[in-house]
Design brief:
Structural class: alpha+beta
Number of helices: 2
Distance between the termini: 29 Å
Shape: elongated
Low-confidence stretches: none
Mean pLDDT: 77
Strand content: 5-15%
Helix content: 25-40%
Radius of gyration: 20 Å
Number of strands: 2
Strand order of the largest sheet: 1-2
Order of helices and strands: HHEE
Largest sheet: 2 strands, antiparallel
């Protein structure tokens, strides 16, 4: 039981460390492709924000639901939620 607790704590620490920022900017300072923001787009977004509640989702910057295969038994999969 003690080994299991230690292993779980070690896995948690590794996961926290691996997800810790350090994002690199796009090469050459370019931004993603797309049209410039127009007055029409701004008006539509404002209207949508007034009509649609986003709580508590608005506090989440990004969400990823990942499935991971176990190293020793690839048939065993784990589901991981990353916020």
């Amino acid at each position: 039981m003690r080994t299991l607790t230690f292993t779980a704590a070690l896995a948690l620490a590794a996961g926290i460390t691996a997800c810790g920022g350090g994002n690199t900017p796009p090469r050459g300072g370019e931004t993603a492709a797309g049209n410039d923001r127009t007055a029409k787009t701004a008006a539509l977004e404002t209207g949508a924000n007034l009509m649609q509640a986003k709580a508590p989702v608005e506090k989440i910057a990004m969400y990823l639901n990942g499935f991971h295969a176990a190293k020793d038994d690839p048939k065993m999969q784990l589901e991981a939620h990353h916020y």
